[in-house]
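Before the break, one more example. Copy the sequence into your notebook; we will annotate it together after we see the structure.
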Amino acid sequence: MQNDIKASCQKRLGRIEGQVRGISKMMEEGRYCIDIVTQISAVRAALRRVEEEVLKDHVSHCVEHAISSGNKADQRQKIAELMAVIGRSDR
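Here is what the structure looks like once it is written out:
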């Protein structure tokens, strides 16, 4: 993973961690359910953005390397892994 992407994702994950702690505190305080659900939705969206960054980095390095290497088995493996993870993320 590229260092700038890694740093950006780490920063985002730190904010997400704080958001999750905030949701836990909201629940402890008995906050309004819709407010809690709204925050949960925000965390899911933030996680999706991190996921997108990691996948972009993966494609620009691992998949690109497999394609340029000419190794057909490696190419098939990287594409299969990518398709499997994309299929799981849509659920």
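The radius of gyration is 18 Å. The chain has three helices and no strands. Try to locate both features in your own notes.
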